[in-house]
UniProtKB/TrEMBL annotation:
<dbReference type="Pfam" id="PF00300">
    <property type="entry name" value="His_Phos_1"/>
</dbReference>
<dbReference type="InterPro" id="IPR013078">
    <property type="entry name" value="His_Pase_superF_clade-1"/>
</dbReference>
<protein>
    <submittedName>
        <fullName>Putative phosphohistidine phosphatase, SixA</fullName>
    </submittedName>
</protein>
<dbReference type="InterPro" id="IPR029033">
    <property type="entry name" value="His_PPase_superfam"/>
</dbReference>
Length: 179
């Protein structure tokens, strides 16, 4: 089995000082949400072996905060900073996953909408089976979708080949039933 964690970057400022979308930074709520989601991931024993993170500042900052939640004495993941994840299509992201070197069981991919939400929908839209959890209509900032694949190699990952097993957002975490 292989497991993919899709994480949308946390909430950002409206505009970057540079005026470039790529340079937008996390705002206070974004930093708080990233820490909360990082804590949830660790609490769920979802510790990635490989992290694929967009080169955008907001994605990098999200990973820095989430990664800080991993205990110092725990195995640390390999991290790849990929410019091609910025504004990537679902097909591009699937192609990146299929070419992952080695055999990590658990990958965390940090990216952007609309591509990330579309990827989650595409990977987990398998035929039939009421055990499949529905993915909500959007993926808000700092939302997590965990998708499991009954495959031995990432090269075999395909659209419709995964199953959504967990979904969490900062808002759901704050709800009384969030933990």
């Amino acid at each position: 089995m292989r497991r993919l964690i899709l994480l949308r970057h946390a909430k950002t400022e409206s505009d970057a000082p540079s005026g470039k979308d790529h340079d937008r930074r996390l705002d206070d709520r974004g930093r708080e949400d990233a820490a909360a989601i990082g804590g949830w991931l660790i609490g769920q024993q979802l510790r990635p072996e490989l992290v694929l993170v967009s080169s955008a500042v907001r994605a990098q900052q999200t990973w820095a905060i989430v990664g800080d939640q991993i205990p110092a004495d725990a195995p640390q993941p390999n991290v790849a900073h990929l410019a091609e994840l910025y504004s990537a299509t679902p097909a591009t992201m699937l192609g990146i996953l299929r070419e992952v070197p080695g055999h990590p069981q658990l990958i965390l991919l940090i990216g952007h909408n609309p591509g990330l939400h579309e990827l989650a929908l595409g990977l987990s839209c398998s035929k039939g089976g009421t055990e499949h959890k529905p993915l909500p209509g959007n993926m808000p900032t700092a939302a997590v979708a965990v998708i499991d694949f009954a495959i031995k190699h990432w090269g075999d990952a395909s659209f419709g080949g995964g199953r959504l097993t967990q979904y969490m957002t900062p808002k759901l975490l704050k709800a009384p039933h969030g933990h």
